[in-house]
Amino acid sequence: MKFRQSAQGSFYSQRFLQQTIFIMVHLSDCEIQAINKIWCKVNAKEVGGEALSRLLVVYPWTQRYFVTFGNLGSHDAICHNAKVLAHGEKVVRSIGEAINHLHDIKGFYADLSKIHYEKLHVDPTNFGRFCYVLIIVLARIFSEEFTPETQAAFTKLFHIVADALGRCYH
Ligand code: HEM
């Protein structure tokens, strides 16, 4: 078990810190409202396709998980790759379903976490990367409506999503 030293000099286990961070992340009613206000207007095909395309361009090493998707040789090829666009849509739809299970996102993502860990061997750092890219896409599409407060609410939500998907790795 790994240990970290706190500022006060005492030692905490890595697992304890992860659990504590999770408990600290709580969405208020106001934040849930801000998320729903944007999410009800999200076009999963548009947002998901752009987010996954951007992930594959900005972090090119993530392409290795999608070798069966065909041509990922350039930005243009990725943006027009039907498999990339369809998978991006699938991922964003899944996040939409998670928003309907805010009381138990860990439970909702238990099976998917296992699939990404055991079958797909996805490095969990990439969950955070995808969520980061998703924030950028939402900000681009919703512009002024995507206020700093809304961004803060989505950042919290995506932290919970990434943590839930990473559950099997802990
Ligand atoms: C962060 C949010 C993510 C969500 C909500 C999510 C969700 C999903 C879902 C719903 C599936 C379909 C599972 C099935 O058919 O049983 C899937 C498959 C997959 N995911 Fe994720 N995923 C996420 C992030 C990632 C990331 C960051 C990567 C890699 C960089 C990744 C790689 C894959 C791969 C390779 C598949 C299988 C694709 C195929 O062959 O059809 N996922 N994901």
TrEMBL record:
Keyword Iron in record: yes
All copies of domain Globin, residue ranges: 26-170
Molecular-function annotations in GO: haptoglobin binding; heme binding; metal ion binding; organic acid binding; oxygen binding; oxygen carrier activity; peroxidase activity
UniProt xrefs under Pfam families: Globin
GO BP, sorted A to Z: hydrogen peroxide catabolic process
Keywords associated with the record: Heme, Iron, Metal-binding, Oxygen transport, Transport
Stated name of the protein: Globin domain-containing protein
